[in-house]
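quick q for whoever's on today - can somebody do inverse folding on this one?? i tried earlier but teh output was garbage lol. C-alpha cells:
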C-alpha cells in the first residue's frame, strides 16, 4: 500500500528495523530511569542490574516489574524522572480504590502521545473531512484530551461533547452530522437505549465509525452496535500509566489490536511473572520506551490477552494483541472456573430479549454463589422460560452454572464512563 494509507512511516517499518529501534530505546529508558528515578535505581541495585547490562531485547527480563502498588507507595511524584518545571500536563487514574495514579507529560511526551492516537484514528479511516464527537470525560481521564488532540491533529472537525446528557449527545450527532464517535462500549449501549426510547434510527445518518474502549467488551456487543448505528466498531486499548489511549487499536480487519512496538515493549506473563507460551493467554506487561517525564519499566497492567504475531493484510508490521478478555482483579472464580465479565456479555448479547445491561453479583458467603442480574423488557421479568434459556446459554459458554436474576430495563445503574460489572458483596460482610 502507498504511504498515504498510513499516518506515520513507522507503521510499516520492517520488523528487524523495529526491533533495532526498540533496543536503542530500551537502553535509553533504562538508563533514564536509573539515573533520574530513585525508586528504579534502588530496585535495579537490589537485583544487581546496571543499565549497561541491557544488551539485547531479551534482557528486559532482568528488570523489575512495576505494579500499581508501586504507584501508591511513590504517590504523587516519586516516579517522575524530570522536575515539575518540565512537566506540562498531569493526568490521573480514577482512584476508585485509593489514591489515584499520577501521570506526568513533557512536551515531547504529549507530541508522541498525540501522534500515537492520531495513528490509531487514521488507521480506522478518520480524515480531515470527518466530524468527530468525543463522548468521554474531559477532566483528569486521559481519554478526553487524548482523542481530542489526535482528531484535531488529523484535521477532523472535533466536538468536545464530554460524557453524559445522552439526549443532547443525540441532538449533536444528528444536527452536526457526526461521522465518527468515541465513548465506552457501555455508554454506546446507553445511546442505543435512549435512541430506541425516542424511536430514533440511524438509517441515512452520516455516522460510519465508532471507537470504543476503556473497558473489555465482546464480539457480540460489537455486532449489536454495528447493526444499530450502521457503523464499523473498533476496539481501543490504552491506560494512563502508558500515556492513555493509543497503546493498541484495531485496524479495518477488526481481528486483534495492533500494538505500537516502536513505543512499547510487550510481554505476556503468567501469575508468577513467567513468560507464557506462544499464543497463550496471560497478563499484558508493558515497558514504555519513549516517555521522558515518567519512564515505566515492565508494568503489570492486570489486563488479560495474548499476542498475535502474524502478518496483517493491512500492511502494518506491528504485532497484534487479542481484545482484552478481562482484568486480573475482575475475574470471578466459580467452582474452580475463571469467569470474566466480557465472557458473560458475549453470551448475553446472543439473546435478543436481553437489553444489554448486566451485573455479576458475588455472594458474601462463598465464591461459588454467583448471580448474574440481567436487564430484560418489563413483560419478560417473570418469564421462567427466558430465565432458564439464559442460564443454559451461560452454562454452555462458561462451562459452569450460575444463577440468573431477571430485572426490568432501567433498573441497573448507568454510567457514561466504565461500567461496573462485578458487585462483590463479600467486601461488606
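ok took a stab at it. sequence:
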Amino acid at each position: 500500500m502507498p504511504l498515504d494509507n498510513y499516518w506515520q512511516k513507522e507503521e510499516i517499518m520492517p520488523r528487524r528495523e523495529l526491533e533495532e529501534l526498540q533496543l536503542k530505546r530500551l537502553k535509553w529508558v533504562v538508563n533514564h530511569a536509573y539515573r533520574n528515578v530513585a525508586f528504579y535505581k534502588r530496585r535495579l541495585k537490589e537485583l544487581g542490574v546496571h543499565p549497561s547490562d541491557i544488551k539485547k531485547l531479551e534482557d528486559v527480563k532482568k528488570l523489575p516489574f512495576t505494579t500499581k502498588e508501586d504507584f501508591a507507595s511513590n504517590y504523587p511524584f516519586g516516579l517522575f524522572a524530570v522536575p515539575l518545571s518540565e512537566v506540562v500536563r498531569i493526568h490521573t487514574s480514577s482512584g476508585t480504590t485509593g489514591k489515584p495514579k499520577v501521570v506526568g507529560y513533557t512536551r515531547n511526551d504529549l507530541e508522541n502521545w498525540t501522534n500515537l492516537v492520531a495513528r490509531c484514528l487514521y488507521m480506522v479511516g478518520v480524515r480531515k473531512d470527518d466530524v468527530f464527537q468525543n463522548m468521554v470525560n474531559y477532566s483528569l481521564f486521559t481519554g478526553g484530551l487524548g482523542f481530542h488532540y489526535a482528531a484535531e491533529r488529523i484535521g477532523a472537525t472535533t466536538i468536545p461533547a464530554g460524557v453524559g446528557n445522552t439526549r443532547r449527545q443525540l441532538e449533536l450527532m444528528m444536527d452536526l452530522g457526526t461521522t465518527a464517535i468515541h465513548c465506552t462500549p457501555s455508554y454506546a449501549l446507553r445511546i442505543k437505549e435512549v435512541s430506541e426510547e425516542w424511536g430514533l434510527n440511524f438509517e441515512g445518518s452520516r455516522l460510519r465509525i465508532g471507537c470504543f474502549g476503556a473497558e473489555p467488551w465482546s464480539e457480540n456487543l460489537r455486532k449489536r452496535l454495528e447493526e444499530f448505528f450502521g457503523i464499523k466498531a473498533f476496539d481501543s486499548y490504552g491506560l494512563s500509566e502508558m500515556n492513555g489511549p493509543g497503546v493498541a487499536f484495531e485496524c479495518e480487519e477488526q481481528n486483534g489490536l495492533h500494538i505500537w512496538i516502536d513505543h512499547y515493549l510487550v510481554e505476556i506473563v503468567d501469575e508468577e511473572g513467567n513468560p507464557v507460551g506462544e499464543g497463550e493467554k496471560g497478563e499484558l506487561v508493558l515497558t514504555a520506551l519513549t516517555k521522558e517525564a515518567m519512564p515505566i519499566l515492565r508494568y503489570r497492567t492486570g489486563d488479560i490477552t495474548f499476542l498475535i504475531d502474524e502478518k496483517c493484510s493491512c500492511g502494518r508490521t506491528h504485532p497484534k494483541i487479542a481484545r482484552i478478555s478481562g482484568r486480573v482483579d475482575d475475574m470471578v472464580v466459580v467452582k474452580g472456573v475463571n469467569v470474566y465479565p466480557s465472557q458473560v456479555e458475549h453470551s448475553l448479547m446472543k439473546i435478543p430479549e436481553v437489553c444489554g445491561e448486566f451485573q455479576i453479583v458475588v455472594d458474601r458467603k462463598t465464591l461459588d454463589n454467583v448471580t448474574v442480574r440481567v436487564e430484560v423488557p418489563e413483560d419478560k421479568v417473570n418469564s421462567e422460560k427466558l430465565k432458564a434459556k439464559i442460564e443454559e446459554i451461560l452454562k454452555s459458554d462458561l462451562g459452569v452454572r450460575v444463577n440468573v436474576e431477571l430485572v426490568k430495563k432501567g433498573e441497573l445503574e448507568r454510567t457514561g464512563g466504565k461500567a461496573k460489572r462485578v458487585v462483590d458483596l463479600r467486601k461488606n460482610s
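fwiw The chain has a mean pLDDT of 92. also The chain is about 30% helix and 20% strand. so keep that in mind when u check it
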